[in-house]
Amino acid sequence: MRLLILSATQFEIQPLIQFLEKHFVSTSTVTFQKGNLEVSLLITGVGQASTAYGLTRTLAGRPVDLVVHAGIAGARALAIHPIGSVVQVVADVFADLGVEEQNGDFIPVTALGLLDENQFPYSNGWLRAPEESYLPILPKVTGRTVNRVPGTALLIQQLEQHFSAEVETMESASTFLVCLSESVPFLQIRSISNQIEPRNRANWNIPLAIERLNEVLIDFIRQW
């Protein structure tokens, strides 16, 4: 079993790295082996472009059996998905790909007719994970991917108008696009660090989100 775990930043999966260093045999700086399980790590850098490039380059160099994209995310409703909860994103979208009109309205690329909303691998404008990839232990959510994390109520409202999603990240849809296009099985696992609201870092809890995220990742690897 060849497992690729990718994250935008190393600190998001640092506890997992420490676990692998302790319990697995290191066969390279980014690859660990235990029995028939090989775990490779990929730190792509933040954002859609870095994720798409890093993942595509890695998959072109060596095949893997499963990609697990892990990281933190904002949630729309903390009452449903509180900070520290871990979810599986099963549908995602490039939410700010489009144009802004003179009056400030945002028009998604599909509404402009520049992208067929059902052109493979899209389905009604969304990128969707196959149901056979669903993990029974995690809540299933929709996500939206943005280049610019919204910090004002106006921008949040514009995104919600077109792509109402339960969580928000800066990379997720890139992994959906690459893995669906290349027919590579994948999981998108995110831990909630903050609410989607006008920017207020005082309400964030990144350490808790990272702790819970890595607990799930380590348990997942132990199952193999």
Describe the 3D structure.
The chain has 5 helices and 13 strands. It has a 5-stranded mixed β-barrel with strand order 5-12-11-6-13. It has a two-stranded antiparallel sheet with strand order 7-8. It has a single domain, classed as Nucleoside phosphorylase domain (Rossmann fold, 3-Layer(aba) Sandwich), CATH 3.40.50. The protein is globular. The protein is of the alpha/beta class.
SSE sequence, one letter per element: EHEEEHEEEEEEEHEHEH
Helix content: 25-40%
Q: Helical region count?
A: 5
CATH topology assignment: Rossmann fold
Cα radius of gyration in angstroms: 17 Å
Write the CATH architecture name.
Answer: 3-Layer(aba) Sandwich
**Name of the CATH first level:** Alpha Beta
Structural class: alpha/beta
Number of strands: 13
User: What is the assigned CATH homologous superfamily?
Assistant: Nucleoside phosphorylase domain
Instruction: Domain count, please report it.
Output: 1
Q: Which strand order do you get reading across the main beta sheet?
A: 5-12-11-6-13
The percent range for strand residues is 25-35%
Largest sheet: 5 strands, mixed, barrel
Instruction: List segments where confidence is low: pLDDT < 50 over at least 5 consecutive residues.
Output: none
Arithmetic mean pLDDT: 95
Query: What would the principal axes of the Cα set say about the shape?
Result: globular
Distance between the termini: 9 Å
